[in-house]
Specification:
Helix content is 35%, strand content 16%. With 328 residues, the protein is an alpha/beta fold.
Amino acid sequence: MRKPLPPASGFLLSIFLLSSFLTGCQPASASPEPAPVTHAYSASDASILNPERGFFTPYALPGSAGFSPVRATGNTLVHLNINFDNWRETDIPQDVLDGLQVNFDDIRDGGVKAIVRFIYNLGPYPDTEPDASKAQILRHIEQLTPLLQNNTDVIAWLEAGFIGAWGEWHTSTNGLDNITDKRDILNALVDAIPNRYVQVRYPANIIEMYPNPADAASAHVAHHNDCFLSSNTDVGTYERDGTITVERDQAYLAELTRFTPNERQILCAQSAALECAVALQEMEMLHFSAINEAYHKGFYEVGKIGGCYEEISSRMGYRLRIDHRRLQ
């Protein structure tokens, strides 16, 4: 009969077997790493077809689809003026909401994005057609929330809209020209699409609600100007009463627009202020993202004559540049 190994011997044998196993599994010597390869790139000053920047094409809705040709014009943005005048006192019919979904589907298929404004009239000023009551506006925002949230991928940002002539937040026929009602409507719209910015026409309104520009940006509140270069206050866009001045408003916007989209319509009134030097200086200070290509044509003619049209086109919005990349 074989005698069992003493305990100590069995322990030594286990260590030997384990050592043999580990030795047998040692990897082969590693091959040298390949030398890194660096690719260098040259910067381009060309106008690049990038999303959410540049000139935009305006459309009036409700209406049929037809956004597919936009990219061929060199634009990646459309502006939707969605008019609910026929339903100022009622719910928006489901077939109208369904038709707007068809519009958004066509925008998606066309490879562009939309700037959205909801309105109840097309002016005129100062004796405007009616807007809707606050209660009706809030009800319409409630109805629109699923539509907005289902199409966030093709919505660049919203304009606050709804109130007053052209949805510009002035001359409300329902008494909504006050900061309380404006704040409630703005908050409802921000809540309806919390991952997009909502632009307000008047800097004074934004400053009253958010004295700190960083707080406005965090709340997804931004600015749009429907009368750029139209007068020394851009036809009331900026205030000038000794305390609320153009300089104060623009200093605030210069900070806010570092983080938020800033959009412009040019010349709602003819102005001698239309000069390339003036336009470029303000566009740079306020970090322009997008401009209406359709209005006012006088701006573009002066820009072409003055030689700044191409610079304006190429410098709107963001611009990313890759200097080099390194491959290991």
